[in-house]
Structures are given as C-alpha cells and as structure tokens.
Amino acid sequence: MNDSSVEKTTQPIIEIKQVWKEYGDHIVLEKLNLNVQAGEFVSIVGASGCGKTTLLNMLLGTESQSRGEILLDGEPMPTEPNATRGIVFQKYSAFPHLNALENVMLGAEFADAPLLGKVFGTPRKKIKEQALEMLTAVGLADAAMRYPNELSGGMQQRLAIAQALIKEPRILLLDEPFGALDPGIRKDMHKLVSELWQKRGLTIFMITHDLSEGFSLGSRVWVLDKPRIDPQQPERYGAQIVYDIALNATQAMPSSIQTLIEKQATAKSAVQENTHE
Amino acid sequence: MRLMNSKPSRSMRLALNLLPFVLLLIIYTLASDARLLENPSDKLLPSWSSFADAIQRMAFEPSKRTGEYLLWVDTISSLQRLLLGVGISALIGLVIGVANGMLPLFRATLSPLVTAVSLIPPMAILPILFIVFGLGELSKVMLIIIGICPILIRDLQLRTQSLPVEQLLKAQTLGANTWQIMVRVVLPQVLPPLLNAVRLTLGSAWLFLIAGEAIAATEGLGYRIFLIRRYLAMDVILPYVLWIAVLAFLMDTILRLISKRAFPWYHGKRGEE
C-alpha cells in the first residue's frame, strides 16, 4: 500500500476507521482506513461495480457501514443526508419547476422557513442577492430566470453546484458530475471546480470513471480495486483503496497507473473513431 | 407516393377534420326527411325545426309548471354536483397520493386499501350510497368521489414515486425536512400530472353523475334526459346530449389551458442532454 497520507496536525474532517460494507455474504468494501483533512480534493477512481458509489453513499448517509465507523469532524456521521454534506449528481440535481435563481435560493429558504419552505419580504431579498452572487460565481448570472430544461447539460451542472454551495456544506460530494457532458464543456467544468475549490477552501470527494480526470483534478486520488479475487467466490473479498496518492506538482504517477490511463485513453479514442465512421 | 408518406396540407387537413361531421349531418337530414315524409308525427329523427323549437322551449322560455328555465336549472345543478365531486376527489387524490408516494409507512398502511376500493364497481354500491346518504345531493357527489378517487390516488402515487430519487436526496442535503420537501419539491411537481389525471377522469365523472341523476334527482341534465325518454322526446334528448358534450369539451380545454399557463416548465421543451 502506498503510504502517503497527510501528516495529522489538525483534526481530520473525515475519519474512516476499519470500515467494512457487506450485503449478506457479499463483501463490497473491506478494511477502509482513511483520514481526510479539510481542504483536500479526493478523486475516487476504480472499475465500475467496485464500490465507488457505495463509498459515496456512506459519506452521503443513504447507506451505513456494516462495521467500523465514519466520523465527520470527530462525530459519528449522521445516518441520513443533511446540510453538512452537499451533493451534485450526474443529472436530475436541479428542480425542474423552479428557475435557476429559485433553485439556488431554495436551500437558504429551507433554513429560514421551517413551515412553508418559502421566504417573503425583506429576508427574501437578502437570500436573492446571496443566490445571485452564487450564480455569478458559477457563471450563470445571465441564466438566472431560466428553467433547468432550458439550460444545457453543462449549465445544469453549474446550477447544481451553486445550489449545493449556498448551504456551505462541510464536504461536497460529486457523483460522476461530468459524465454526461461533451469533452469541451467538461474541460470548462474542470476549470470551474478547481477554481471554486481553491477560492472557497472546499473539501471535495469526486467519483469518476475517467482516470485522467481523477488525476488532473484534485489533490489526492483513491484507487478502489479488489486486491484479492477468489475465482470460485468472487463476492468473498471486497474492494479496498489500493492506492492512496497525494498529488502535487513534483509527484510522479506510479507507472502502473500511467499505463492504465494510457490504455483507457486509447480505448476511448478508438470508440470515438468508431462512432465517427 | 406511399399512402403512409402523404400528408395533408393545412387547408386540406381542416377540410378532412370537418368532413365526417358534415357527412353525419347530411345523412341525418336525409334520413329524418325520409321518415317525416312517411309519417309527419315520427319522433325518432326530429327535423331541424323541431330541434330549434325544443331548444327555444327548454332554454329561453320559463317552464309552464315551475316557471324555471329548465336547461339552465339542469345545467347549474349538474355542474355543481360534478365540480364538487371532481374537486373533492382531486384534493383527496393529491393529499393521499403524495403521502402514499413519499412516505413508506403511509404507503404500507393505505395502498392495499386503495387498491381494494378501486376494484369495487362504483355502480354496485350506488344503492348503499342512497341508503346511507339518502336521495339528496350528497349521495350523487359521493358516487363521483368513490368512482374517480381511487384512480386519482393511484395515479398521483405513481407520479410521486417516479420523481428522480436524486432530487429528493438533493433536497435533503439542502437541509429540508419531510414536510418542506413535500410542499416545495413534490407538490408543485405533481400538480400538472394531477390536472392531466382530472382531465382523463372527467369522462367517468360524467358517467357517474348521469347515472346518479337518472336514478334519484329532481333536476339535472341526466335527470331530464331520463325523464323525457318516456315521451320519446328525441327533440330534447339530442340537444341535451350535445350540450353535455360541449360542457365536457369546455372543461377539458379550460384545464389544459390552466396547466399550460400555470406550469410553463412542465410543457416546455426538454433541453438536450
């Protein structure tokens, strides 16, 4: 195992201690021991079906671990989703019946109006300003009055990010956020997310099946894979974090990962060529 | 050119739309003339002039017996029953449908009951309604409610359950509680489907209304048709039937326009992925 975890100087924002996840006899994840400091950007990569989404769901609170514990700021992770953890899904993150501005305002309105979920008058003006600022930050100021179905895929994801950020969550979870976007737009989104991460000091967990995306974004990469496989009983062993790589400018990628990325890139361009024919 | 590939032009389409109606009118006129020629007191296919007389008598002259304008009295009392029945059904459908769709505990309790009730033919329990609620307005409104409510509840439940789970999770990460998600996320999104479901069940609502009125009422469109059947008064029955069709069409159109006006996001084009 690659030992490159960050020195523990302060309280980690997320502590994952001896976590296992199993469904009956089927072991999905095993022996996860990880600490994440505030301000880290963790990309989680791995083959499909290896438990990336299960791990994210445990961070989100929709699934709970079978063994071990996950701590958020030293406290056990709440067992249902709440405002401490924001999320952006691949799609369906925005509410289709609200325009972009109302979509962003919603989070603030929930906090201020427990009964109606809607704020009126002067407080509404304040929330509106705040939401407009957020929309400007993600480059959607011109589209504030448009409904999600009038926005392109990239704009919808910008909206979803703005929506999550207005709650100032402790951690932001991104579940293959750019999987459905065109390559050009994806590049713009990478820029936006890196900027927001650095400017706002966010703590981000991002799932991606695109290895190069995982390495180009973020400060740390977790590679999920099954180190042991029993051919007779594939569900006997779960996936672990086989590489935990802190990225910085001088860090060289392990050669095995490098070849993986190259393999994926050639496979992808082959697919693209095929579709162009 | 193949038949499947030839499309009518705009004016051609309008002409084709009208064609069956014109044909029906011509056939009716010819048949009516032929029968009246043979027997001037024939009642089965009245002439256009006797329709005009009947409409004049029912709609614009006070009735000799009661002094009321019968068509309008019938229309008002029928519409009152229908709107009351459909309105209450829509409200119940919305509340129970959304609760069933959103809350597993609620669904486990109520869903089998709703399914069981929806399997009972409403007309079969009409006698029970008359016994329990008497012959007044309540039993007729209840018949409409029992007839269409289960359909509305089940439709709304399905609509609620088919909202993407991502949306509900997202709302939770925005700090919303169950009630807030219900009012701000789910409710507004199932209102357009509710209007659609009401449009589709209007036909059944009319059916139950007329059936109820036919059996026990003192005024109403269905009551009048069944009353006047005894005298073979086709000159009144046919205009009444057409009037009911016009009313049904108007209600459908109004609901469609409301939906378009109030929920532009629902009718807008889906953006490309």
Automatic annotation (TrEMBL), chain A:
Matching SUPFAM superfamilies: P-loop containing nucleoside triphosphate hydrolases
Keywords: ATP-binding, Nucleotide-binding, Transport
Domain ABC transporter, first and last residues per copy: 14-251
InterPro entries, per the entry: AAA+_ATPase, ABC_SmlMolc_Importer, ABC_transporter-like_ATP-bd, ABC_transporter-like_CS, P-loop_NTPase
Domain of life where this protein originates: Bacteria
Residue stretches spanning the membrane: none
GO molecular function: ATP binding
PROSITE patterns reported for this sequence: ABC_TRANSPORTER_1, ABC_TRANSPORTER_2
Pfam families: ABC_tran
Protein name per its UniProtKB record: ABC transporter ATP-binding protein
Species of provenance: Psychromonas arctica
Automatic annotation (TrEMBL), chain B:
Subcellular location: Cell membrane
Taxonomic source organism: Psychromonas arctica
UniProt keyword annotations, A-Z: Cell membrane, Membrane, Transmembrane, Transmembrane helix, Transport
Protein name: ABC transporter permease subunit
Gene3D superfamilies: MetI-like (1.10.3720.10)
Lineage: Bacteria, Pseudomonadati, Pseudomonadota, Gammaproteobacteria, Alteromonadales
Topology with respect to the bilayer: Multi-pass membrane protein
ABC transmembrane type-1 domain residues: 79-259
Family: Belongs to the binding-protein-dependent transport system permease family.
Coiled-coil residues: none
Alphabetical list of Pfam families matching this protein: BPD_transp_1
InterPro entries: MetI-like, MetI-like_sf
Major localization listed first in the record, in broad terms: membrane
Segments passing through the bilayer: 82-106, 113-135, 197-217, 237-258
